[in-house]
Amino acid sequence: QVQLAESGGGSVQAGGSLRLSCAVSGHIGSRYTLGWFRQAPGKEREFVAAIKWSSSNTDYADSVRGRFTISRDNAKNTVYLQMNSLKPEDTALYYCAADSAFTTRIPHTSSSYDYWGQGTQVTVSS
């Protein structure tokens, strides 16, 4: 069983930065994909970024590419999301998720992910 716990959310002004952390407990196999999703009020959950646990291959949503960076520290079993140049439209509840499937792809659909954290709120004011 895999458990995920997010931290690092908060309130920031537009143009500011935040770093989210996702602490992973339980066994993470080399095939796993760790991802970040977000959900704003009244909107569907959307893909933000993801990283392959073994290869460190990454992928990003077009809306955050160049501003956000996903990384992982295998020794600490932690995935990070560095968010720079934040915009008010980045305001959402951010979730960490894990996909255990044997695949080289990095899925963008939330239904592909087996495990989810509780979320951490990010609020960006203009």
Rg computed from alpha carbons, rounded to a whole number of angstroms:
13 Å
Mean pLDDT across all amino acids: 96
Number of DSSP E strands? 11
Low-pLDDT segments, ≥5 res: none
Distance between the termini: 40 Å
Percent in helix: under 10%
- Provide the β-strand percentage band: over 45%
Characterize the main sheet.
7 strands, mixed
DSSP summary: helix tally: 0
Compact overview of the structure:
The chain is mostly beta strands and 126 residues long. The protein has strands at 3-7, 10-13, 18-25, 33-39, 46-52, 58-60, 68-73, 78-83, 92-99, 115-116, 120-125.
Can you tell me about this structure?
This protein has strands spanning 3-7, 10-13, 18-25, 33-39, 46-52, 58-60, 68-73, 78-83, 92-99, 115-116, 120-125. By secondary structure, the chain is an all-beta fold. Strands 2, 4, 5, 6, 9, 10 and 11 form a 7-stranded mixed beta sheet that branches. A hairpin with a 4-residue loop joins strand 7 and strand 8 (78-83).
